[in-house]
Amino acid sequence: MAGRRLREAVKETLTSNGNGEFDDETHVVIAGLTNTYSQYIATFEEYKQQRYEAASTLYGPHTLSAYIQEFNKLAKAMAQGENIVPKGPSPPDLSSVQLKLLLDPFGDSPPPGVNFGDVKQDIHPPKGGSFNKGDRASATFWSPTPRYDLLTEGTYAVVEMLQRERWVPAYDDDDFSLFFKWGVDNSTFYGSATIEWELPEDASPGVYRLRHFGSTKKTKDSPNTYFTGASSAFTVS
């Protein structure tokens, strides 16, 4: 019901401010963020009942009204061709009061004589020296726990292709063919990351390499330092 009321309100705002660009056939779709952005958004009536969804509506009984108010502002600006809408208040940052049952990383170091990002186990081409579609290429890098930075706007692993003397990203963690595995050697307690690439049927022939990205800290309170490493080049036929 909350979604229905929001769609109807936005549609009404668009049709009444769009100079004929929008009409009764306009279809409004809610494509919203999920996973604890603002939890549930119950109607005012449902909020008073305090069942599951209403009890998880974090910002009170008028949450839906606030959403409708702000989306109507955006819809009106869109319909009238306005380029700038004043930024409203941001939701509170509650990360400092959230319970954490998993301890933060406390600082890692690589084995003596190596750096994070150095290759621990390089690519081993198959007999004949070239990989074929369906083969799996893998390389392992010295690497600390990935939890120092989740790289949500980046990636831990990339397959790069050599094009005109430049390495260009061809596959990353958006692709089901690429696997990133991290673990600790129980005897030495040093961490390593393995990148595996299962060559898809649409992979173009050429020269490739596997590249790893990561970060670490010298101590718990020191800033993150970032590193990268790359495997040897290999060919795909």
UniProtKB/TrEMBL annotation:
Family matches, as Pfam families: Ceramidase_alk, Ceramidse_alk_C
Reaction(s) this enzyme catalyzes, per UniProt: an N-acylsphing-4-enine + H2O = sphing-4-enine + a fatty acid
Record text on cofactor binding: Binds 1 zinc ion per subunit.
Superkingdom, taxonomy of origin: Eukaryota
Cellular compartment(s): Endoplasmic reticulum; Golgi apparatus; Secreted
Cofactors: Zn(2+)
CC terms in the record's Gene Ontology section: endoplasmic reticulum; extracellular region; Golgi apparatus; membrane
Neutral/alkaline non-lysosomal ceramidase C-terminal domain span: 71-236
Main location, first listed in the record: endoplasmic reticulum
An annotated GO BP: sphingosine biosynthetic process
Annotated Neutral/alkaline non-lysosomal ceramidase N-terminal domain residues: 1-69
InterPro entries: Ceramidase_alk, NCDase_C_sf, NEUT/ALK_ceramidase_C, NEUT/ALK_ceramidase_N
Ligand binding (Zn(2+)): 40
Any GO MF annotation of the entry: N-acylsphingosine amidohydrolase activity
UniProt keyword list: Endoplasmic reticulum, Glycoprotein, Golgi apparatus, Hydrolase, Lipid metabolism, Metal-binding, Secreted, Signal, Sphingolipid metabolism, Zinc
The keyword S-adenosyl-L-methionine is annotated on this UniProt entry: no
E.C. code: 3.5.1.23
Family, as annotated: Belongs to the neutral ceramidase family.
Official protein name in the record: ceramidase
Organism encoding this protein: Escallonia herrerae
